[in-house]
Amino acid sequence: MKSQKIYNYIVEYNIMKVLLLFLLIVGSIFANSKIYNAYALSIYDENGVREIIKDKRITEKDYKNNCITEVFVNSKYRTDTPRVTIGTSIGHLLSSKSVYNRNNIKVGEILKFKHYNVIKGYLKITINNKIYDQKTFIK
């Protein structure tokens, strides 16, 4: 009789552990990945010359053919990859680097995108069909 109570206690304890683990996994999958903002930082030409475009409405140089854009996404969690376009040219993700504050808490990511066959147009950043930045015109 006493061994039966111990067995029932162990079974209930293991069921509770499995249930708690399941809830943690499901909670982490559906965690709130709120995006606070996303904006363009800079653009590089084919030769690697950088122009900071964070607060500009129009670029100083012409960026015909190929170029690389740098985008900052302010979010605590890894989010969907932004869609970055310049006119009709769609950016392809090259690299991603996490950004941390002085307390070692993640505040966002800097992503680099390579664009091919750029003619001209607005640099547009969208995540999940929501526009976050579209103010800079690329010549």
Give a description of the structure.
There is one protein chain. This protein has one helix and ten strands; from the N terminus they run H-E-E-E-E-E-E-E-E-E-E. The protein is of the alpha+beta class. It folds into two domains: 1-31; 35-138, Immunoglobulin-like (Sandwich). The protein has a five-stranded antiparallel sheet with strand order 2-1-3-7-6, with no helix packed on it. Strands 4, 5, 8, 9 and 10 form a five-stranded antiparallel sheet that branches. A hairpin with a 5-residue loop joins strand 6 and strand 7. The protein is elongated, with a radius of gyration of 23 Å.
Helix/strand order = HEEEEEEEEEE
Query: Count the helices. How many?
Result: 1
- Percentage of residues in DSSP E strands: over 45%
C-alpha Rg, in Å?
A: 23 Å
Largest sheet: 5 strands, antiparallel
Report the count of strand segments: 10
* Helical content (DSSP H or I, runs of 4+): 10-25%
Layout: helices, strands, pairs:
Blueprint (H helix, E strand, L loop, with lengths): L1 H28 L5 E10 L5 E3 L12 E11 L7 E4 L2 E2 L1 E9 L5 E13 L2 E7 L2 E4 L3 E2 L1
Antiparallel strand pairs: 1-2, 1-3, 3-7, 4-5, 4-8, 6-7, 8-9, 8-10
Give me a quick take on this structure.
The chain is α+β, with helices and mostly antiparallel strands.
